[in-house]
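Hi everyone, sorry if this is the wrong subforum. Our group has a chain we'd like a structural model of before ordering constructs, and none of us has done structure prediction before. Sequence below.
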Amino acid sequence: MEKIFKSGFVSLVGRTNVGKSTLLNSLVQEEVAITTKKTQTTRKAIKAIINRKNSQIIITDTPGIHKPKTKLSETMIETAFGIFKEVDLILFVIEATSLDVGRGDRRILEKIKEANKPCILVINKIDLSTKEQIAKLISFYSKEYDFNAVVPVSSIKNKGIEVLLLEIEKLLPKGPKYYEDDEYTDQTSRELVEEKVREKALKLLNDEVPHGIYVEVENFKNRLTKNGESIIDIDVLIYCLRESHKGIIIGKDGKMLKKISTFARQDLETILGTKINLKVWVKVKEDWQEKEDIINKFKLK
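Answer:
Right subforum, don't worry. Here is the predicted structure as tokens:
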């Protein structure tokens, strides 16, 4: 008897820094979302496609829930909760190191209740906790909401990932393949470049600067070299909030900017499978976090 093929749309939601992006990459087994130890790394909905024998899971990572301070922050939270209307299933991600149900998590739970969609509680970072603590968390959260399943995982150690995928499959409706088998993200090449440059900046710069940067591809052009090799010329602008930040991003004798560019180019050549000529500039734009034309790029499409 032929097995029923299932497909559907899934949303990852959780407070900032609970490891949603790392979890997404573990689920799809590709580097789809950028990951850093800094908070608010994810700014917009990032979609990944997981192709399995009897299912296709389209899963979206969303910005971490936090207290908004700018129009950009407000848009990020609207994106995280707004996608609930469009999905078949919600994955609510918490940390195994949590001691109880925090204020931010209660806010998320309220939105989940309003959405009235199937929901799996995912307890991430179990490698940093104990069985006793995880059991307490399950007890706390089970009193708050009747989850369809509770799955402890470690994204870093790749533990519990297959169990989570099986639980997701159980809750998906019967459906077609929305994407080809070799597709694993709906991000454009330009978006991948912007995210990769931002990732390297986040990892290399100090705490104050990274959250005030915005990366934009100015030029993206394929060409052939004199030797007939394929190469992509890419010009990128890093916008920052202050003149002092610009100096930090460029670094002494341009060393920091060169590091960011080199590391980004190396990763992008692997991802895009071709040689890349990457040029990066830095420009001050003090109020970019309040500018509608930029903020619109972070809204749900």
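For your construct planning: The two ends are 39 Å apart (CA to CA). Strands lie at 6-14, 46-52, 55-61, 89-95, 119-124, 149-152, 214-224, 230-240, 275-284.
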